[in-house]
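Continuing from the previous page of notes. For each protein in this section, the sequence appears first, followed by its structure tokens. Read the first protein now.
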Amino acid sequence: MRVTLIHPAIGHRAGESYIRTWQMEPLPIATLAGLTPPDVNLRFYDDRMEDIPFDEQTDAVAIPVETYTARRAYQIASEYRRRGVPVIMGGFHPTLMPEEALRYGDAIVTGEAEAVWHEVLDDLRHNTLQRRYNGERSDLAKIRVDRSLFRGKRYLPIGLVETGRGCRFPCEFCAIQTFFDRSYRSRPVSDVLNELELLRDKKKLFFFVDDNFAGDIKAGKAFLPELERMKVRWITQMSINAAHDEAFLSMLARSGCRGVLIGFESLDAENLKQMNKRFNTMKGGYAAALANLRRAGISVYGTFVFGYDNDNEQSFGQAVDFAQAEDMYIAAFNHLTPFPGTPLYARLQKEGRLRYEAWWLDPAYRYNELPFMPRGLGHEAITQGCIAARRRFYGWSSILKRSARNYSDFFMFRNYFPINMMHRGDISLRNGYPLGDETWQGTLLEVS
């Protein structure tokens, strides 16, 4: 049996290459490959960097779908289904919008696909494919990752590894809480270490892709001494509360952690309250947390969002001032996005403030556009404010100034300028990017 795995792009703009910073290896593909029996002939195509051979013989196609890639995923599914090839879709978006995904796929997997992947393949063998599979929480001890399908593909030179899943915090805008029901689970330490051992000679830096590496600090403190003996460099994302645990930060640094992504989101207390992120200001707030991280020698990737009710024209400049004053390694300044299945989406829908009922499918919607009507500012003012914030933060004087406090680790300092220049170059490329391939001439084929 031949099965084709596809990772869809966000979209394609005519005459332009895909944005480089969006080209990390797709870990869900490697996870599915690791769970596939050896007698299944797997092929993999990454829509971000290669053409998809739609006429190549295959018995089925499987596509992991996120909200930003949904329109392109449905285009790809339509091409295969017109050729009589069954398409299975899974991931966050089909879980949050199952009825929509069922319109464009022969089958969908909701929840965690690892729990039902063998059942899906067995049904394909016997021509008994069901319309819907519900993957309950996977046993993380049974996860096996196979990256052999990535050979020859030009991904960013970062190894993606999962050490745990989920997050317990109830942030209004985050779909993680819906998908994982505000829970956190850790993978077995030995499995993570074995995976790293196989990759350590091939990768100089690892990204632990956990939604919140500090989702279980107690488990993290048990894992980090084992990781310290591996002598690898890694970065991750975590909630700011962990930055107030100096013992934990010290263990992070000794284990090879060189940087963390933290969602600061806003400097305004009322905005944080509306987000359900008041924990961001605990124990001395941002300044104390960042001072702790700096003492530990851990760089910071800060993220900020704009569009909440208390934002005004000064909010963008204040966020840039703060990120520059703290000499953040890199930072993101993005508009608020209401993802389906989140409390934010439900609230804005109830208030009649959505500009598009399904912005991820609307041909008129473009990346960096605000898909709802904000209260404090116009939607175009927020889009332009985010772009101006990025231009200022990634201006030459800002890059040079911030470099002075980002030299504690030679490896991170050596990569500081290339990474900042890459983000500088992406500022204009991302603006107005289409969702879906704007050169595609077909029509979305719905299941009859």
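Done with the first. The second protein uses the same format. Note its length before scrolling.
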Amino acid sequence: MILANALFLSWSQLIDVRVSDLDRRPPANVTPPPRIVLAQEAADSLEPAVVKPVQPPRVAPLGASAPTPERTAVADRLACTSVGPFQDLADAAHAQAALKTAGFESRQRLEQGELWIGYWVSVQNFESREAAEAALKSLLDSGVTDVYLMPGSEPASVLSLGVFSDYQRAQRRAEEIRVLGLEPRIDDRKRAGSVYWIDADLQEPGQAIDTSIFQTDPGKITRLELRACPAGSGNG
């Protein structure tokens, strides 16, 4: 009996223990597994997205841009060449006729400028007016008659020995004077005044004009320049 009572006491204290409702812990929340839904149900449950319009950047259309005054001036110069200067209207008219024969349309233009006269032979290295006058007398005594002392020149004392259209003739005159003990020089001689230019329209940009078409008189040397036409003078 003693053994039976001991076993009952152990069972009642350790195994058959009653817990009150206040002492019980609340059951843990268990997250249910996700429900399997159809794709259509998922799409219907989503809120519609707000789409904001996007303004594309402005891009200028391709094509020829409006011509600017600078571009127009460059185009005129590339398509037009000025020939000159000419001393008088008759020379300019002959040159324009030569251009017409060669297939160029052209226009005459009058402006103030410098006209080439020829090759000028002179002596300018005198120390004083008296030295220039003594050299003049020496040249006259040596038979050189076409020489004179220029008045009001700069530098103050200059002996002019002639203006020549041919460079070889100018060189011969310089050698003659050099033999007499002086040091001549050869310069381009120009004069200021009204001159004529001819603006010729080229058949293609950069085309060269043969200046030999203007040399109609073998005995007359015409010294001409070719330059770009002034802005706005091309094509009429």
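What the second structure shows: Residues 59-76 have pLDDT under 50 and may be disordered. The CA atoms of residues 166 and 220 lie 9 Å apart. We return to this in next week's lecture.
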